[in-house]
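From the shared-data thread, chain only:
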Amino acid sequence: MILAIDVGNTNTCMGIFDGDKLVSNWRIVTVADRTADEVGLLMLQFFSFAGISRQDICDVIISSVVPPVMYSLNLAAEKYLGKVPITVSEKTVTGINNLYDNPREVGADRIVNAVAALKLYGGPVIIVDFGTATTFCAVTEKGDYLGGIICAGIKISMDALFAKAAKLPRVDIAVPENVIGKNTVESMQAGAVFGFAGQVDYIVKKMKKELGGNAKVIATGGLAHMIAKETKSIDVINEMLTLQGLKFIYDMNKE
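Structure, as tokens:
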């Protein structure tokens, strides 16, 4: 079994692959100052809940956009699982030709998503990741990563409204019944959900024009289901895209 870990700014996702099948997955809050022992014990608790022994884990692969967590994460894998993780970097074999001006600036998760999307759905493809930031990535049929767009994420935007507008409350992100809100909470929810849905449709339309083809659009991330249902442009929702990409990359690099 392979343990795949994707460390994001807000959440860390872990998944266990038995062959090519994702058999268990978990999501925890990313905490930079967790010790290796805390991380290791969390892993073992998850394994126990899923009926998996740590001896079943034959390898670990990690992608991360939060460097401060890596020391504890690597140490936990070595101490509790007896494995030295593969860490996705610009030197890792991915099959993706990164055409960014400075390839090191591209977050590992974006390249991992590109690998999975190209493998599963073919190219050209546009990946929309609803994470801490909302990112849009463009990949050609040949596997060229062209670049993309980085926008403020939905939760960040809502938190900013609460922090900067004295009379606006903190609200749950949910789909309201109407676009025209009848109270402050509904109005803020409409702005978040329908506003971001409109953002997605407009940006995807412009990206497709630049790509010069009918690219497939894949949505991933924690809020993918909520927002994607309100768009016209998203073709597929795959919340496990990053974990699947990590497994594909592991298979390329296991030797």
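The helical segments are 36-49, 70-81, 108-121, 154-164, 184-211, 224-228, 241-253.
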